[in-house]
């Protein structure tokens, strides 16, 4: 990305290739809401790494150039931002906070969130993480003993939600063992609504409220009511245990302590928004990444055996990882996680908006232009792997892979990049290592041959349509 003094040398957006389209509608009819990311990736294969498409009157630029993507991510939040449209949709639904904040507001909020997600905080949280993972193991063991197959995808989402809410708010809501808990259902419903609206050509809900839109409003109201109750409990706990004010144990405590400082600008509304944002940012992404890995491992006995061997060696006689000191020993499991995120990143695309006029590869980008970054397609082009579709964790373990100029990790942005790099990366990796090592230590994994093919669904993140895996309790040697 460069800025040319002689703006006459820049090409207009209209000079970029496009997939055609209809008068007035543009390409609206071609973007299936459930697979919009796949359509954009396919157009990139047909048109090249830089092209345009149109949604009604809106001309959108699409970029799958790795170096350009890295430059744009580094230029946030000063020159590029999350799109105004996305921010408005999130604000309407009440899912605001550091995820959608921009400029100085983002800088202030990010510091607080970063302090709540440091490795030290995650390490202190490990006993709770371990207990919740043991609860997941017991649930699966009980179901298998009764002759029932666990719904692994549902349980992973519930487990991740329990973990995220515990770390964010100090509450154990146990949606894992209480599937009738409305909070999980409400969160998933609002998340799905967010995904539908982001790819919708028209914001119809601002003029006509369909039943699904009224339900989304009601679901969000219930979520806020629950979080408001958590805040009241946390305030009472801080009053009873003032030592927590010195060393907060979760995000909610940290925010409420900060709110007491002069001129902090932290209101109850902001506290609620940040807590909800952390739940939305952490629940779906982590569980989906783990689910994609399990889908790959169930189809490759060699990979499953390697993860199992490593889990046996590290956990020993334990059913769940006893402490955080072994996180770095999961070399093969981490490689498998990276490989799953390479092929099935939960953030396959990322829309940005230009805050000021600039240019991309010699194309003039007016202020307010939306640029959709194809993160997965860009990685594919940059890595130039002859076996790109193959799930092969060993590629991350080959000698020199981490130091080489063409290190595969340098081409990927599974947690974003630049100043807005995801603050929850360490937590997400810790969660996946603990949960997946527990699964492979205690259970054999196989593919459900009778299940329909798994499809990628776009629900703001890339979600598997199902997880066709079967569990069987292992006869683990003492």
TrEMBL record:
It comes from the Bacteria. Heme binds at residue 422. The keyword ATP-binding does not apply. Its cofactor is heme. Coiled coil: none annotated. InterPro entries: Cyt_P450, Cyt_P450_CS, Cyt_P450_E_grp-I, Cyt_P450_sf, Cytochrome_P450_monoxygenase. Keywords: Heme, Iron, Metal-binding, Monooxygenase, Oxidoreductase. This is Cytochrome P450. GO terms for molecular function: heme binding; iron ion binding; monooxygenase activity; oxidoreductase activity, acting on paired donors, with incorporation or reduction of molecular oxygen. Belongs to the cytochrome P450 family. The keyword Transmembrane does not apply.
């Amino acid at each position: 990305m460069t800025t040319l003094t002689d703006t006459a040398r820049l090409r207009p957006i209209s000079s970029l290739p496009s997939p055609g389209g209809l008068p007035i509608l543009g390409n609206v009819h071609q973007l299936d809401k459930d697979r919009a990311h796949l359509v954009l990736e396919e157009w990139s294969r047909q048109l090249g790494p830089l092209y345009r498409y149109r949604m009604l009157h809106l001309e959108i630029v699409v970029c799958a150039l790795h170096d350009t993507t890295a430059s744009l991510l580094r230029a946030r939040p000063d020159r590029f931002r999350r799109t105004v449209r996305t921010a408005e949709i999130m604000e309407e639904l009440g899912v605001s906070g550091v995820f959608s904040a921009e400029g100085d507001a983002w800088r202030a909020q990010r510091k607080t969130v970063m302090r709540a997600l440091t490795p030290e905080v995650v390490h202190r949280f490990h006993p709770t993480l371990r207990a919740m993972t043991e609860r997941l193991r017991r649930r699966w063991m009980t179901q298998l003993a009764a002759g029932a197959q666990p719904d692994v995808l549902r349980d992973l989402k519930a487990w991740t939600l329990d973990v995220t809410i515990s770390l964010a708010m100090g509450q154990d809501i146990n949606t894992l063992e209480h599937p009738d808990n409305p909070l999980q259902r409400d969160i998933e419903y609002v998340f799905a609504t967010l995904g539908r609206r982001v790819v919708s050509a028209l914001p119809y809900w601002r003029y006509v409220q369909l039943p699904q839109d009224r339900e989304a409003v009601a679901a969000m109201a219930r979520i806020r009511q629950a979080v408001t109750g958590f805040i009241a409990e946390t305030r009472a706990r801080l009053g009873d245990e003032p030592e927590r004010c010195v060393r907060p144990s979760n995000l909610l405590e940290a925010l409420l302590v900060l709110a007491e400082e002069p001129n902090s600008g932290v209101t109850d509304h902001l506290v609620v928004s940040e807590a909800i944002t952390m739940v939305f940012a952490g629940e779906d992404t982590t569980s989906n990444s783990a689910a994609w890995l399990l889908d790959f491992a169930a189809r490759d006995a060699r990979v499953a055996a390697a993860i199992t061997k490593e889990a046996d060696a590290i956990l020993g006689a334990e059913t769940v990882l006893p402490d955080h000191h072994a996180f770095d020993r999961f070399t093969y499991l981490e490689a498998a996680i990276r490989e799953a995120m390479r092929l099935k990143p939960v953030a396959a695309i990322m829309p940005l908006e230009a805050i000021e006029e600039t240019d991309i590869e010699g194309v003039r980008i007016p202020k307010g232009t939306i640029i959709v970054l194809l993160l997965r397609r860009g990685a594919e082009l940059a890595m130039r792997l002859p076996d790109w579709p193959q799930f092969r964790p060993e590629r991350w373990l080959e000698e020199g892979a981490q130091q080489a100029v063409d290190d595969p990790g340098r081409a990927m942005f599974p947690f974003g990049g630049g100043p807005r790099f995801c603050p929850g990366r360490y937590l997400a990796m810790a969660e996946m290592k603990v949960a997946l090592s527990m699964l492979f230590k205690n259970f054999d994994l196989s593919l459900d041959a009778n299940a329909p093919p798994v499809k990628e669904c776009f629900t703001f993140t890339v979600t598997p349509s199902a997880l066709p895996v079967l569990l069987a309790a292992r006869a683990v040697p003492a």
